[in-house]
Amino acid sequence: MRSLVFLVLLGAAFALDDDKIVGGYECTPHSQPWQVSLYSGYHFCGGSLISEYWVVSAAHCYMSRLEVRLGEHNIAVNEGSEQFISSEKVIYHPNHDYWTLDSDIMLIKLSKPATLNQYVQPVALPSGCAADGTMCRVTGWGNTMSSTADSNKLQCLEIPILSDRDCNNSYPGMITNTMFCAGYLEGGKDSCQVEDDNIYRCCTDINSILIITSCYVCLLQGDSGGPVVCNGQLQGIVSWGYGCAEKNHPGVYGKVCMFSQWIADTMKNN
């Protein structure tokens, strides 16, 4: 397993793919009011507002301190709709595994409540797990295959949830019950988790035995942590994948419906 993960990482590092939603389109401004940007001097991951105090993202996006930026569409300009709120607590799932990305979910408690308005609204948590074939929308900031796209403007993409069989066939031995695949097996459309601006810095500046794990975190930042919304409910968290929009390698997402109790308990106890 670890050898396979290392080969995937090595290929991704040399490919230097941009972080992007491939084959998507610019979202209608502020049509995804739960989408947030996680910021630490730069946008490094996405997330989803689920209440006035709480945000869901991917555990591999973990930083002990970060800023949550809400009400964004174009992250390069001040649009007057933004709210910048620092984190009070960042809590990743106790079963999260950096090697396998099992339980790739974390909760961020805001230091003050978000002001809910037309630009900032929470997304509903799932009432159950979505069925195979359900069409969902994944969103994030990044380049697309269109040369005219503005990488600073929020991108949208509609993708179907794939069957467990197709998911396991795409990534043999790598899919756990906290993950699902979504996208198109023929390729061409996907969310992507690589942020090429940080690959070289991350993977050459680490002086620790955890170099492979730590580089994995860097390689998976970008659209990572962002929402997959199906029928108005947050069903997925952008997590990982091999390349971007490659044939037979769909995106892999954290399965939010598996964490309903943990989310409820964590919010109640913190």
UniProtKB/TrEMBL annotation:
It comes from the Eukaryota. GO terms for biological process: proteolysis. Residues 21-268 form the Peptidase S1 domain. SMART domains: Tryp_SPc. GO terms for cellular component: extracellular space. CDD domains: Tryp_SPc. Keywords: Disulfide bond, Hydrolase, Protease, Serine protease, Signal. Its EC number is 3.4.21.4. It catalyses: Preferential cleavage: Arg-|-Xaa, Lys-|-Xaa. Residues 1-15 form the signal peptide. PANTHER family: TRYPSIN-RELATED, TRYPSINOGEN 1A-RELATED. This is trypsin. It comes from Cyprinus carpio.
